[in-house]
User: Fold this.
Amino acid sequence: MMVCMDCLDGYFFGIIGNTALCYLICPDRYFSNPNIDICQPCPYDCLTCDMTGNCLGCDSVNDKRKLFELTFRCLPIAGYYDNETARCVRCPQACSMCLNTTICSACISGYYLSTRCTCEPVCQPGSITILTTRVPSCQKCPYDC
Assistant:
């Protein structure tokens, strides 16, 4: 294991994992703080960030995130959800958006959001298909049907 205790001028001290090294440019997920000459961690969703915590870049391949420029945050791509770690987690099958591994909030084309918040190819008996909303869904019948 390599360990640095102090860095030359123009370098940033960084403890990344179990390694303390000096960096000319801080690695991904860290930003260079010139006020104290150290590499500091970015927010969990950012691949690269500025000193104020705004994301500047995201990792769509590994983390499954894209930059939302209005908020400077890296948000999950379609079919994934944010579990408050660097890498997003895949939604259940047929979900285009979800809250976790069991609750869908939108479905891929050809599926309907059920009353149980799952994506189904057809609405179950006792429910009706609603196509007038942005998310095609199933709703419980108001009467026995």
Q: What stands out?
A: The chain has no helices and 16 strands.
